[in-house]
Amino acid sequence: MDAYPSEYVLHNLPFILLSGLGVEPELDPPTHSKHVLPGRAVTSVASEISALTGDRAQQLLQEFLSAEGGDAPWNARGVQRGNRASFRFRAVGRDFQFPPKKADPPTSSGISPPSSPTVSSAPVWILHSPISPLTPGSPIYPDGVIAPSWVSKHQHHVPAVFMSFFAFGSDPNTNSLHDNQLKTEINKIKGQIQKADYRTRYAVVLVSDKSVLDAPDTEERLATIRRATGLDPKNSLFLLPPNTSSTELRSFVTSVLSAVHPLCVEYYRDLTKHARRKKGRGTVPPPTIPPTRGTSQTLSHPGWNVRYDFKLGVFAEFRQEMDAAQRHYNIALDSLFGSEGIFETTASWLPRWDEIRLLADTVALRHIRCLLWNSYPTSAVQSWLRYRTRLSSLLDRRGKGTSNYGWAAWESRWAQIMAELIQRCELPVFRITTPISKDDPLVDGVNVMYSLPEKQIPMGERLPPWELLHHAGYWFKLSADHAKRRFIIARDIPEEDRSPPGKAPATRVSNRNQMYDLYLVPETHLENPVPGSGEGFQHWKDIVEKSNASLAEFHRRGQRRKVEQLQLEISRTLLYEKQYEEAFKVLRPLWETMTWRQEGWWSLASEVLWSLHECALRVQDPETYVATEWELYSKVFPGKSKYKHDLMGCLDSFQLDVAAGQKPSISLSTTDFLSCLSTTFTFSEGEGNVGEQLPCQIAITSNARPESTPITLSSLAFQFNGSLGDIYLVHETDRSGIGSESTMTDCSLDEEAPQARQEQRPKWNGTADLTLHPGQTKVFNFPITFREAGDIDAIASIFEINTDHFDLVCSTIGLETEASSMWWLKGGSRLKSRRLNRSLGTSVKVLPKPPKMDIQLPDLRTGYYTDEQVKLDIVITNKEDEDTEAVLEVRLLGRSKDTLGYSWVGKGASSPSKEIPPSLDGSDLDLPGHHVGLLVQGRQTTETIQFKAPSEPSDYVLEVRVLYHVLSDRDIPISKTSTADLVFNGPFEANFEFTPRVHDDPWPSYFALREPDNSEPESAAAFGIASKWLLSAKLASFAEEDLVVGDVGLEVVHIHGGATLNIAKETEAADVLMKPQDMNERAFCLDLQKMDIEDRRPSSVDMSLVITWQRSDAPGEPAVTSSLPIPSIQIPSSEPRVLASARRSANVPSLIHMDYTLENPTMHFLTFELSMEASEEFGFSGPKLRALNLLPMSRQTVRYNILPIVKGDWVTPQFKVVDRYFNKTLKVLATDGLKTDKKGVGVWVEAEAEEE
To answer: Where would one find the signal peptide in this protein (predicted)?
Structure first.
């Protein structure tokens, strides 16, 4: 947009003039008003009060200037910054001149014809603006439409708001005088503004030195000033308090601008109404003087409509109403290109034709900017295309055609304008947020290449791609293409048309103006001057500049292919102009990063290589010259017939001082650059063993051009992952004179031991003839002995070429190619390759040396039991061919984190009983572990470990590892590992039954309490309520073999609730042989007594069942003690209960005495209602219904005599006990010999009783 006047293309913002804050120097000051609006009727605005100075005034000025929107993006988000709108400011001090509203009246000498009589009376003139087409002195008089000075007038010289700044003192002695001076100055300035006859608004900012609290009369003084000056306190008079911080100052400026913004809008709306009224008159205003000279005519009515619509559009932009501006610009364009438009009435050879084209371009540019502002991207492109088509048709019909360099220059400029508009608008769709990742662009975000159509375009409408708005790079590329076409057309201009005007006939110069379109372009003798006539237009700079702008946009969006294409096109342009240094700067990065190598675009890659090769020679860059010569050796690149490829002597023509350190060193990688040599390393087998030789092979193949000279490598190295160091071959000339035929050579490599302790990998060195002719393959065979086990991969190859003039290093990372799985064989005089039986020949798995040591566990059982002592014998047999030294390592590995400890049987007292083995990685040559010692070939030894089985059932793995070395090679450790499963099961399981009993001892009396005696034992000191219980344990054998069970007892873990416990066995201790799945019952009597009679807490007992047992087949082994946890037993002590017991009568065999014992352990007097229901199964004697009173801490037994009627069955008396006070039915608890079911407590009636 630099080709157009800045007033035409810049976005218009409300103009505010700052007076009294000093003068701020402007980077791009506007033209003086006398040059924009000439005339003597200027209006000066001056003030006798000096301007504000100091840091505070400077800070205030900078805050206002920070709202300057000249550089803001051309969108609603850029103009509306934060909470305040953008403006355009000018700081002018105290003096300012308003330009004249009307032009000066013409003089009589300039208007009267020479033969006209003199008129004595002065005429009455109709005066207009100095830049109106009706004013004789205007540059567009009499038929011009509008000039850029009109936009400059409203943007730089006539403000919408004139804002004055005055100091507001608070000295009580001078307040009255100061206020009167302020009122006088303000009224004077207002009068001067009104005299200028513009609609400019006036505002005043008073900078106070005291706050309202310090000067209470401030409000009254301000009210007096308002009344005297007529300023509105809301938007025309402002007071800045003193001592404001930067944040408060910014907030004050924001509030002031927010208040005056409606004034600005109102000002430009008044100008809009004035222009609309003038347009609505429908008549052409009369000029000051009618044109009387030549064939000039006044501006036609369509021209005036274009002028008014352009004004209306500009005023709408001032108000930031871009939709209204878009509408007016569209009307102006239609008027320009209409059938009665000024294009149709103006001759193309006149200067006014170019002025109209300039105005049309401006209106179209502003129209497109409005569309982009209003988020109509597709409509903006369609408007851009439509204007180009209409202008092309117009020039072909009425102008000088579109086949000249002027039209090509305009098309280039028009595309560049679109690109710059997109950049200045900063559309959100084209915003670059995050860089695109090479690995996964969907993760980091995708930068769009074009904008989707707006919603106003119907869905499903098929739009051609060139009607979609692409990013700025697309338009810069289009501009560069048209610039190239301009250069091609200018290059074909005849020489007689390129001569300077002073050296060409006048008729020829006149014909040029008729043939060539010179709109915004230089003349033909400057567009493409003849040699020796000076420097003309630099086409190559124009093309490169626009291509670089396009390249930057494509690069920001990660369009790598387009970037490379543009770099190549730029280099072509520079090479055509012989700008080798500039071309070198473009080609060198392209050569380093181009993707055409990987994708096989050899013609494009070849062009880059040859161009860079030539540039490197021209600029004398030896590193680049050698590198490109190396790549050009490859026969995939098209060559040149007369060029001789000689890598070893390619720098002979360069002037290099090797002694002074000018010998270049070049480092290349086949990942980024193409190599004419390919190297492979292949292992003959996929597996090998430590200490054994494995054949290996290195193959070097030359893919160089047939006509190139041989290449001699100084060295060749291969690098490996794993336990193998580098393999290094050094060049040694072969005197046999093999020539260019492919050869296979057997090499002998020397093993180099590591020099330092941290270097664990040995290296291999050797020599070979490394001279390769084009198309030659050299294969080198050699064996390698591995010293350590593990995986080995060939990962890289590096070869060096050292000459007198340069050093070249070429590396290859990643050797996993198809050629790496080939093995070369010699078939007669030729070499043949065969494919290996594996996919990758660069890897080998080195296994440890095969162990021949035997490990046996002769007494290992199929199962073990918890808590038992286990002894295991480990038998080691040496089956190696020679004597060995060995150690044993044992680990017991389970699912838990803890490793099961063990000890070696027969170890000395100084040896630890529990040995935790070290790491089993086999890397330590000191052979850690249990020392076995020297083992003679064929002999065996036995070592024994013992450990205690875990207390919980679990599974373990016994890992026995013998680590040894043969005496002839102590550096290579050998290991043999044997594993066995150890399953530890629980030998027993038990079910427990807990029933109450009636305690025989009387309860302690609540009325005869005694104090506890601490000297008595715990059981004797307890004087609380005692209770008796029966614990029955049914023991089941889950072992897989016979076990002998000895003593079975109870172990008290903990007693809760303040009680003592006595345990008595009711089953005699005896050894019992239990077969698998056998049952054995043991009973225990528990006497529990509370420590204190007033203790009401419930008691609980945690116990374990302790079982002593041993295997039946190992009577000599020590007994094993196992424990089974018993669920916690809860014993209530504060609730009443009923215990039922039964015994047979001694006198009457069939009579059963049923005793019901009611216990009241509470501190309450309780009354129970007892009832016994009649039954058809038995008869009973005793009360059917009765009430029973129980004192606190007492118990009582009620007996019923039961005479059963049925025999051999259970009889269930329905005895019911109800607590009268709580209305709660107590459950009857059964004791020994009774059962409880849902009916109640039952007693068994023997069938033999009746027979007896």
So the answer is: none
